[in-house]
Amino acid sequence: MKKHKIIIILLLFFAFFASLSYAAQDSLNSFGMAPDFQLGDLNDRVISLSDYKGKKAVMLFFWTTWCPYCREELNVLNQEYSSLVKDSIEVLTINVEEPRYKVEKYVRRSNLGLEVLLDSDSLVARDYGLMGVPAYFVINKSGEVVSAGNHFPKNAIKELAGR
Q1: Taking 60 as the threshold, does the pLDDT of residue 61 lie above it?
Q2: Is residue 153 within 8 Å of 147, Cβ to Cβ?
Q3: Both 137 and 153 in a single domain?
Q4: For the chain, how many structural domains are there in total?
Q5: Do 107 and 75 meet the contact criterion of CB atoms below 8 Å apart?
Q6: What would the DSSP string read from start to end of the chain?
Q7: Rounded-to-integer distance, Cα 113 and Cα 126, Å
Q8: CA quadruple 75, 76, 77, 83: dihedral positive or negative?
Q9: Are 127 and 98 contained in the same domain?
Q10: Mean pLDDT computed over 44-57
């Protein structure tokens, strides 16, 4: 009897988290227009998503310094950056809720050549329905979210670049 209870609890637990994952993915795919934002970067400039509307596609990447998967994806982005720029895709990495000094230290140590924005109060992450990091959002020139996920979005990039 105990064995059946454990199995039922495990199944319910799995079903609950699977439904959360499905709901999160569904909400990511049903954004339509990307929520606009203004965030400061590490050079004290204010960057607004609307600055790119009608001009360039944008890839947003939400991350933290403590996340090992984020560090892997940052390396991928760093390697792909010149190709993305050549395809007229702007890359904005958004650190979520970490102190500036910690982010600056990580960026220096890692030799990141990417634009780093600071979402210190995680309001932008919340507007994008972020359930965790790493997270990518690809936004076309019209300002619509065309892809969202946790891994480098090769297919969405190919479509935007017309490859």
Answers
A1: yes
A2: yes
A3: yes
A4: 2
A5: no
A6: -HHHHHHHHHHHHHHHHHHHHHHHHHHHHT--BPPP-EEEETTS-EEEGGGTTTT-EEEEEEE-TT-HHHHHHHHHHHHHHHHHHHTTEEEEEEEES--HHHHHHHHHHHT--SEEEEETT-HHHHHTT--SSSEEEEE-TTSBEEEEESS--HHHHHHHHT-
A7: 26
A8: positive
A9: yes
A10: 97
Q: Using one digit for the tens of pLDDT, what is the confidence trace for 20-29?
A: 333 344 444 4
For residues 72 and 22, what is the distance between their CA atoms, to the nearest angstrom? 24
pLDDT tens-digit map of 69-102: 999 999 999 999 999 999 999 999 999 999 999 9
pLDDT of residue 30: 55
Say how far apart CA 113 and CA 136 lie, in whole Å.
18
Greatest extent of the chain over all pairs of C-alpha atoms, in Å: 63
Per the CB < 8 A criterion, the answer to whether 154 and 73 are in contact is no
Clarify whether residues 13 and 42 are in a common domain. no
Instruction: Calculate mean pLDDT across residues 51-65.
Output: 97
Q: What is the span of the domain harbouring residue 54?
A: 33-161
Please indicate, yes or no, whether residues 15 and 40 belong to a single structural domain of this protein. Answer: no
